Amino acid sequence: MDIAKPVGSEVSSVDFGVLSTDEIRKLSAKQITNPVVFDTLGHTVNNGLYDLALGAFLRNLCTTCGLDERFCPGHQGHIELPVPVYNPLFFNQLYTYLRLSCLYCHHLKLSELEVHMFTCKLRLIQYGLLLEAQEFENMVAKDSADEEKQIEPEAKQMLIEKRTKFVDFAIAAALEEGRTLEKGLVTEIVGEERKRTIHLFYARILTRPKCDRCGMVSPTFRKDGFVKIFENSLREKQILENRMKGLTRPDMLRKSGTATPATSVPSIKPALGSKYILSTEVRNILRAVFANEQRVMQVVFHSRPQLQGYVSADMFFLQALIVPPTRFRLPSKLGDEIHENTQNELLSAVLKTSLLIKDLNDQIAGHHSKEKASSAEARKVLFNRLMNAFVTIQNDVNAFIDASKNQNAAAGKIPIPGVKQALEKKEGLFRKHMMGKRVNYAARSVISPDPNLETNEIGVPPVFRGQIDLS
């Protein structure tokens, strides 16, 4: 240890992200399609959860890297889901953004000037300019939704440019004076102000009974756990008010992105109550809203200014599911019997439901059925089975990721732990063997000073340093 040269490096930031569907496919060694794991002779099945492409298994070499089970690091696979499912970790955020969205113009329900105001304020907060953000908020406090309706488009554009110039000048002045950095400034106070501003942004939109941009009244929603979303029907007065505006909702289930005149739609009185909406429709709605509101989405989801990547609504959905390598799902042996890993049971359920959905789709389309359904009742039964399968696969994915969000879990029975439960367990190599109070070779920081260690150093036992590379 050289006390004359202390360590001067520091961790400036840590980023967490969500793998996209394309990234999962590129990282995958093989697509898993077979829910059967072993054949009658106890051998692994091709395209199964113990496929040799995911790693060496039972004295068989790995077909991906060619190594045996001692040296093969393991390779992940993936399961293609027949329909997009909600990511249970972000379901609450998805539900919030669905409520913030106008289903007619596919913008946030807030006016353009107010959305721009929050965009400018969040840009200032990214650089830690809280005083300038407060000054900017006071400057635009006189603007209200009623006043904005009287502003001409040219005047509105001039006001937006004026606000943008104020923000750009404030950031440039702070950079020149050294009060902020190009990569932004993140402190506890800045983080709290950012959370408060985003919360106010959401609350401001949720108070809107109708869209400030197009004036249409969108239906409200309700959720059933972390599985289903229902759309509540509009009242007759709201339906008549919408018809007088001259626009109807685009059919997002068929990905039609433009509104159609009300005269082209037959006047059919909608059924009262609520209806179940498919995850595909929810995804298409949020995709359109995020595309139209990309500027504000970038400052809401990016806490630092140098992050300028496209913010996609696909982060709320899963189209492909990662299958962990075989070495992390090894079966247990009891005599001559081999018992599968509990994680395999969850993944097998996803595969079985996926095959069921594909089979029902084929039956409805008439591809594999010898005789097409001749009656409306038979088609209705198939359609209801398909809707139930959509709910089932959502529960299966929820159980794999987070067991606490599985509605199909048996009451009074401990559910199989999901990925979230595995990460939350307080067991591991370092905690059990390195950081224990009664372990002689524990490398842990203590209150009393050590003359051989500096304040920015920690001792590591030779047995750990010799086997673990921390570079």
UniProtKB/TrEMBL annotation:
<keyword id="KW-0548">Nucleotidyltransferase</keyword>
<keyword id="KW-0808">Transferase</keyword>
<dbReference type="InterPro" id="IPR007080">
    <property type="entry name" value="RNA_pol_Rpb1_1"/>
</dbReference>
<dbReference type="GO" id="GO:0003899">
    <property type="term" value="F:DNA-directed RNA polymerase activity"/>
</dbReference>
<dbReference type="Pfam" id="PF00623">
    <property type="entry name" value="RNA_pol_Rpb1_2"/>
</dbReference>
<dbReference type="InterPro" id="IPR044893">
    <property type="entry name" value="RNA_pol_Rpb1_clamp_domain"/>
</dbReference>
<protein>
    <recommendedName>
        <fullName>DNA-directed RNA polymerase subunit</fullName>
        <ecNumber>2.7.7.6</ecNumber>
    </recommendedName>
</protein>
<comment type="similarity">
    <text>Belongs to the RNA polymerase beta' chain family.</text>
</comment>
<feature type="domain" description="RNA polymerase N-terminal">
    <location>
        <begin position="314"/>
        <end position="471"/>
    </location>
</feature>
<dbReference type="GO" id="GO:0006351">
    <property type="term" value="P:DNA-templated transcription"/>
</dbReference>
<keyword id="KW-0240">DNA-directed RNA polymerase</keyword>
<keyword id="KW-0804">Transcription</keyword>
<dbReference type="GO" id="GO:0003677">
    <property type="term" value="F:DNA binding"/>
</dbReference>
<dbReference type="InterPro" id="IPR006592">
    <property type="entry name" value="RNA_pol_N"/>
</dbReference>
<dbReference type="InterPro" id="IPR045867">
    <property type="entry name" value="DNA-dir_RpoC_beta_prime"/>
</dbReference>
<dbReference type="Pfam" id="PF04997">
    <property type="entry name" value="RNA_pol_Rpb1_1"/>
</dbReference>
<comment type="function">
    <text>DNA-dependent RNA polymerase catalyzes the transcription of DNA into RNA using the four ribonucleoside triphosphates as substrates.</text>
</comment>
<dbReference type="GO" id="GO:0005736">
    <property type="term" value="C:RNA polymerase I complex"/>
</dbReference>
<dbReference type="InterPro" id="IPR000722">
    <property type="entry name" value="RNA_pol_asu"/>
</dbReference>
